[in-house]
Structure formats: structure tokens, C-alpha cells
Here is the input.
Amino acid sequence: MTSDKILDGLKQIAAQTDANVRSLLLAGLVSELFRERGFEPVVVGGSAIEFYTDGAYTSGDTDICWAGISVPTPFERAEVMSQIPGVRANGTRSWIIENAWVDLLGELRSYGSRPFTSTLTPFGEVVFISVEEVLAERVFAARRWVGFNAEDDACAKKLMASILRGEISCDWETARQIAALPAYRCEKELEDVKAEVTSELETPKKRV
Here is the structure.
């Protein structure tokens, strides 16, 4: 990517008023820069849920892991990110671009068999971990990892609500299979979240 295209990308990101689109453009710019160096960036966690729910859930940053066998070293991360004018580092894995945070994490630990999904931006492709796996992972983080986590629970419920409303396609059997894997063991919790969100969606909202 040429320096002129990077500058043009930053202008588009800065001018974007929709927070979800802004995050998507930023993920596209960063992903393409690393892809040019032979790495395979994948957006994960709450960041993926933000994109899947079209901004109904806001993560506040963009989390990227690495598929394949290559994970960029701290030096390589700094070298790639330095191509972006005005970028600021916060340690060896967090970066601030146009007042938005990007976290460059480690190797992607994907336990499901579902393929990744992707979308195109003006700068290149953005790849996301599958809906089924990110749902299971977030339910695990909310209710199994270190007890109950309200923030992760809200995140999981936002995604579940979008799925139940038919806004996002999800293979339920695959989601259950992933939740039952030894890495998660949260099949019951997944069913609990589904039942709770179903009840919430069916309950009429009181008029104020």
C-alpha cells in the first residue's frame, strides 16, 4: 500500500461519523498492511461482535489475532504500524490511530471447524472469526472463565439477540458443538443465554 493510499485511508477514517463503519475501515487498513507482509489477520472477540451486530454492541477497540503459522514479532508490528502517519504505540501490542485503539494480539486459537467470514473495504479484506465460535467464546468468557462477567455477558446477549431476530445467520448445531469442546465446556451456559434472550425478546416493553 502506497503512502498516498494510507493517507487517503486515514482521511476517510477521520471523516466517518458512523462508529461501526469507522472501526471497519480501520480494521481494513491495518489488515491490509499486515497482509502485504505475509500475515493473516483475523478480527476476534467483542470487535467481531461489533461488526456482526452492526454496532449494536460497541467494543471500543479492534482486536486482531493471527491465523496460519506466522505471528508478527513486536519489531515487525512496530515496523508495519509505523507506516501509518500519527500512529501512537501503547506498549508492544496496543496502538492508537485517529483516537481509535487497535490491539494486535497473539496466535489465533480457533477450535471450531466453521470457516471465517469476511467483508471488503476500500483498503482490502477484513476477516472475522466465525459467528458460532465467537458466540461460544463470549459465553465462556461471561459465565465460565472466572465466574460471571457482566460486560462479556452483555456482549454475548447482544450477539444472541441479533441471531434470534434473524439478523445474523448462525448454525446452532455448530455453535453447540463448539461450546461443548474441552476449550470451552459451556454448552449449558449457551443454552441458558439463548433462553434468557428469547424471554427478553418476547416480553413486551412497558411504555414510559
